[in-house]
């Protein structure tokens, strides 16, 4: 068995892994850094895959970093399925690759991200026209299948239909992408509304109506009980309502799960994700984790769950890299909260924090509807703890800063939650200066002298 050594082994080549590698190299110019990933591509912007399918961007514009990024920083890469890490011996500080090679390491980072959850629907397994939508290869394969299905459907004198299982962020972005390739796109969501984790009923209904205008039919409260079809492809979906829908391609976008099997098999402690300390070290010696695979404490409600968001992965990657490289001033990771910014066609959506509080949570809620624009603000104990902004992006940066810095609302401008001049184009520091002008409190929430 051939083997190699790396001072820093990074398993995963997306947001968290690349951020960690870059930070390590900033702090340690000499230690060897090896990035290993089963994906064959250089790091790319995973949130951009729907825009690639839609035609808004191209493959050469998906790269997360500039050409020569790895080489210029002396970062070695092993990319491709043959280099997937299949087992980890944390005590011996050894990782074993699918090609049979062994990597001995000093410190290791698990930046393995998420894996798509495929629902246990009868008839879904082994179908040639059922796809997930999490990676670049997923998106390209699904696009090719839809384009081929459209040609066949039109030749037969009928419309081409794509069924999307799941009305979350991934499912709706997939639906938006494929509505430019198929004649009919239907989104099925078992919950009572689309985007159940980031919207309330009013905003979800408003967004669904706007999506319908673009040819995307959203059906909350409905899913698939069985996929039927002779041969390798599903041609009919039996819905939970008893109705049957013809289909050409099915996209399973129900959600994601932490890709933690490698760590758990090595003995790592896991809750809803890998359990890590403030330095993002797992329960395994010299093994750290960052990104979607990590269980995060929500600083707003105290719950613990993965926070599968790109900015969170980048932040954790930098922090983990700092501790791995021994930075004395490394910032500990104490938790975070959800912040989402996405668009659907010409509709902007920004949400953050607690947006559907329970009746006994002690929260106050303010909503504002004006045409297709919807705003919701959730406050508790004099603090902003969450918001929804649909087609109303004004001041989103300020609202997020208010939540993050726990700024008391009592001293703020009374019109802060009204429509105001757009602040999203200003830097974070400029937004803080705007906030400071409205409020006499400092960044730590204490009144300044």
What is the alpha-carbon Rg in Å? 23 Å
Q: Identify the quaternary structure here.
A: single chain
- Biggest sheet descriptor: 7 strands, mixed
Shape: globular
Overall pLDDT: 92
How large a portion of the residues is in β-strands, by DSSP E?
25-35%
First-last Cα distance: 66 Å
Number of helices: 10
Helix content: 10-25%
Secondary-structure class = alpha/beta
Keywords, separated by commas or semicolons:
single chain, 449 residues, alpha/beta, five-stranded parallel beta sheet, disordered C terminus
Descriptive report:
It is a single chain. By secondary structure, the protein is α/β, with parallel strands linked by helices. Helices cover 24% and strands 27% of the residues. The protein is built from 10 helices and 24 strands. It has helices at residues 15-27, 49-54, 69-72, 136-155, 169-178, 201-212, 261-265, 310-324, 396-405, 428-438; strands at residues 3-11, 33-37, 75-79, 85-89, 94-97, 102-110, 114-116, 130-131, 161-165, 184-189, 216-220, 224-228, 236-239, 244-246, 249-252, 256-258, 287-289, 295-297, 304-306, 339-344, 347-353, 364-370, 373-380, 383-390. The strands form 6 sheets. Strands 1, 2, 3, 4, 5, 6 and 17 form a 7-stranded mixed β-sheet that branches. Strands 8-15-9-10-11 form a 5-stranded parallel β-sheet. α1 runs parallel beside α8 and α9 (396-405) packs across α10. The protein is globular, with a radius of gyration of 23 Å. The relative contact order is 0.12. Mean pLDDT is 92; it is low at 422-428 and 430-449.
């Amino acid at each position: 068995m051939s083997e190699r050594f790396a001072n820093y082994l990074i398993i995963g080549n997306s947001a968290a892994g690349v951020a960690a590698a870059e930070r390590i190299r900033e702090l340690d110019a000499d230690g060897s850094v090896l990035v290993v990933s089963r994906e064959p591509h250089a790091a790319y912007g995973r949130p951009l895959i729907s825009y690639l399918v839609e035609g808004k961007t191209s493959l050469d514009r998906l790269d997360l970093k500039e050409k020569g990024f790895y080489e210029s920083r002396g970062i070695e890469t092993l990319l491709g399925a043959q280099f997937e890490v299949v087992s980890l011996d944390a005590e011996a500080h050894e990782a074993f690759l699918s090609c049979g090679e062994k990597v001995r390491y000093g410190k290791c980072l698990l930046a393995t991200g998420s894996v798509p959850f495929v629902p246990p629907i009868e008839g879904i397994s082994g179908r040639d026209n059922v796809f997930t939508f999490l990676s670049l290869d997923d998106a390209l394969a699904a696009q090719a299948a839809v384009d081929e299905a459209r040609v066949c459907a039109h030749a037969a004198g009928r419309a081409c239909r794509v069924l999307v299982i799941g009305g979350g962020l991934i499912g709706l972005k997939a639906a938006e992408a494929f509505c430019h390739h198929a004649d009919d796109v239907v989104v099925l969501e078992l919950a009572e509304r689309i985007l159940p984790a980031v919207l309330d009923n009013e905003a979800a209904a408003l967004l669904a109506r706007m999506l319908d205008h673009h040819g995307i039919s959203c059906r909350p409260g409905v899913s698939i009980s069985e996929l039927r079809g002779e041969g390798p492809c599903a041609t009919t979906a039996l819905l939970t309502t008893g109705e049957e829908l013809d289909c050409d391609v099915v996209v399973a976008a129900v959600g994601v799960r932490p890709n933690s099997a490698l760590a758990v098999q090595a003995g790592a402690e896991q809750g809803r994700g890998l359990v890590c300390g403030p330095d993002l070290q797992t329960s395994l010696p010299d093994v750290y984790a960052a990104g979607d695979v990590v269980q995060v404490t929500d600083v707003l409600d105290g719950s613990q769950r993965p926070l599968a968001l790109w900015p969170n992965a980048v932040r954790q990657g930098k922090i983990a890299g700092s501790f791995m490289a021994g930075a004395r001033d490394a910032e500990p990771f104490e938790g975070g909260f959800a912040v989402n910014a996405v668009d659907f066609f010409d509709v902007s959506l920004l949400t953050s924090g607690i947006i559907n509080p329970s009746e006994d949570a002690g929260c106050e809620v303010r909503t504002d509807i004006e045409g297709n624009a919807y705003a919701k603000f959730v406050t508790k104990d004099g603090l902003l703890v969450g918001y929804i902004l649909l087609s109303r992006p004004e001041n989103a940066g300020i609202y997020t800063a208010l939540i993050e810095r726990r700024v008391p609302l009592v001293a703020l401008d009374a019109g802060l939650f009204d429509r105001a001049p757009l602040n999203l184009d200003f830097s974070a520091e400029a937004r803080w200066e705007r906030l400071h002008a409205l409020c006499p409190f400092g960044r730590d929430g204490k009144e300044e002298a």
